[in-house]
Each structure stands twice: as structure tokens, then as C-alpha cells.
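Here is one chain, start to finish.
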Amino acid sequence: TMWEWNPTPPETEIWKDQVPPRFVRGLQNEGPNVPAARWNACKEWREKEKIDAILDEPQPHYEAIKKYYIHGYYGRSKDGRLIYIEQPGLSELNKLKETGITADIQLRHFLYITEACWRVLSPDQDSTIVTIYDLQNLSISDFAGEKLELFKLVSKIYQAHYVERSGDICLINSAFWFRMAWKIISPFVHENTRRKIHIWGSDYQKLLADLLGAENLPTNLGGTNALSLRDSHPERLILTHVREVIANQAQQTEQEKK
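Its structure:
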């Protein structure tokens, strides 16, 4: 795959006069007027939060967030879907707070990488993403407080405004307590989402490789690809763009001083 920074127009421009087919597909069962109503709400949200311009917005905390929170796009699965990996239990989330990175800053970061996903890395209107959540080292206490609030907010935004974008969701290294909790929570999860969720323990490697292809997974997740998540092509592409925008801003500020 060629990875290049060449964003497609935002959805609001692509679907100026109609409801995106994804919204129709994902929401028509909820009522004939639901897709259009939800698309209107999405357009209002995008305008209010300035989402259409987010990829040109300087991200001064990007590298610090990447350093202390392991997450990112790795490559494509054997059927061509983008693979996203998140490893909160192996991250240093307390350092985010120490460096002054608030939940609001993290949320904006999440929106930034999500827009990079759908406008640059995987711009096809019908493409979906495979998510790998590594639950290693997480305990019940991690599912509380600010972390949980941020997770709930991000999930809510994703379900509201990125309709029909989730493919398989693989929860790996899940502990016994998590599987028990899931039994209680799962009836409340939307059936469409529930069907996509795989909950695997520490013996996930073969299952994950069968689903996505071992050559498309890093060695630390049982794959055969020597590239680390940080050095993946999509991650390097986004980082280069982030740095360019910041450099351009600095240059502009300099010129304005003159």
C-alpha cells in the first residue's frame, strides 16, 4: 500500500445534498427519518467542533500523548481493513496528567487521529476499521474515574458521528474478572456492535493471526512483522504531517513579528 498524506474532502462536502449511505445502512432500522436526523446532528457537531479543519490544526501535545499512551494505526489486515491498536495497560497514563495533558486535550487528539483515519489512511466511504484493545495489566480500578469518563465520551462520539465504521473489535489478554463483567454489560451493548466483539484471553495469538494475517501484526502481538507500532507507515505519515503543521505555524509567527 502507498501511504501518502492526501486528505479527501470532509464528509460534509462529499454528501452535501444527501445522507451518507453508511448512515442509511446503519440507522434505517431505527425508523425512516432517523438517518437524516442523525446526519443533520452530525453536520452540526462537525461545524461546532470545527472538525472539517482539524487536520490543519496544530497538535502541540501529539508527541507527548503518543509517548505516554500506546495507541496507533499499524497497517492493513489481509482483507484490506486498517488495523488500530491500543495498549492502555502498558502505557504511562499518569504521566499525561503530570505533563498537563487534560481529558479535553486527549479528546481533541482522538478526534484528530480519527479524522486522519477516515480522510487519509482509509478514505473509502464504506471502509471499516479493526480495533485491537490489549487489556494486559489492567485491573478493575482502571475502569473508573476520569479514564472511564473519557472512554465513555469517546465511545459516545464514535457511535453518534462515525456510524458503521467499526469492524472487528478484538479484546485480548482479558482477565477472568473482565469476562465476568462483560456478561453483565453485554446485554446493554447495541447488537450490531456486540456481534463484532471478540473477547480473548492470553491465548489470543493464533485467533488474531487467523483473523488478520500474522504478517500484518507486530511481533509483540504474536505476528511476524518486525515493525513496531510507533514505526508503522501510517504512524510515521501522521507524525510527519503533525510536525509540518507546527513548523509552518512557527514560521508564520516569525514572519508576523517582522
